[in-house]
Specification:
Pfam families: Hexokinase_1 (PF00349). The protein has 241 residues and is α/β, with parallel strands linked by helices. The chain has a domain of 148 residues: ATPase, nucleotide binding domain (Nucleotidyltransferase, domain 5), CATH 3.30.420. It is built from seven helices and nine strands. A hairpin with a 3-residue loop joins strand 8 and strand 9. It starts with a helix and ends with a strand. The relative contact order is 0.15.
């Protein structure tokens, strides 16, 4: 067999006829329907509490964090109100020992400290003015809403969400395995560690990475047709619609 013949033979193994594509589509839709009807299906259909998409006119400064695998990202986003935005972000590798820590506290404390470091580096005046106000105001007075960063928490693991900023971990994936986190509210775990550091941050929304993708595209390309879905092809593969 010549080299060309061998190459053709290998290439033929990747042929995917139209009838096979249609079989795959039919089975995919069957699994989607099954996931909508019952828990524990092969393809989980988990509702998000984000009930609308942006239209590109929204303004404001917000924070977001993303725990999606081996890295943890922290960013701030300035929405300009004209479908454009400015983004500042940092990324840090999650130490393996924290991925398999004995307690949730070890991991979520690490995440909160990364948020603190980000604020000190990129929003120094906002951070220090908050510290000054905290020292001069009583707890009863509290802080105005505009002084607090609303934080979107992208948590790319199977979660049963029961509110816009509430969701319990169903199971870990991607090499994470912290037993005492399963069944707990991951937003509450992160907020507790943020509060322990007394940071001006409120966990305002819990979203899967696919939902975040859907939201981001909706903001930058509102258009007449709208954005129909978000999809992630990475360590895991999933979508939102």
């Amino acid at each position: 067999m010549t080299l060309v013949d061998e190459a053709k033979r290998v290439a033929a193994e990747f042929d995917y006829p139209t009838e096979d594509v249609q079989k795959g589509v039919k089975e995919f839709i069957r699994q989607m329907d099954e996931g909508l009807q019952k828990d524990g299906a092969t393809m989980s259909q988990i509702p998000t509490y984000v009930t609308a998409v942006p239209n590109g006119t929204e303004k404001g400064l917000y924070m977001a964090v993303d725990l999606g695998g081996t890295n943890f990202r922290v960013c701030s986003v300035q929405l300009h109100g004209n479908s454009t935005f400015s983004l500042t972000q940092s990324k840090v590798a999650v130490p393996h020992e924290l991925m398999v820590a004995k307690t949730s506290h070890e991991l979520f404390s690490f995440l909160a400290k990364q948020i603190e470091a980000f604020l000190k580096t990129h929003h120094e005046e906002h951070y220090h003015s908050h510290i000054r106000r905290r020292k001069t105001m009583s707890r009863e007075e509290g802080f105005r809403d505009e002084e607090i960063f609303n934080l979107g928490f992208t948590f790319s693991f199977p979660v049963q969400q029961n509110g816009i900023n509430k969701g319990t971990l169903i199971r870990w994936t991607k090499g994470f395995d912290i037993a005492d986190t399963v069944g707990q509210d991951v937003c509450a775990l992160l907020q507790a560690e943020i509060d322990a550091l007394r940071l001006p941050v409120k966990v305002a929304a819990l979203v899967n990475d696919t939902v975040g993708t859907l939201m981001a595209r909706s903001y930058t390309s509102p258009g007449k047709t709208g954005t129909l879905l978000g999809a992630i092809f990475g360590t895991g593969t999933n979508g939102a619609y």
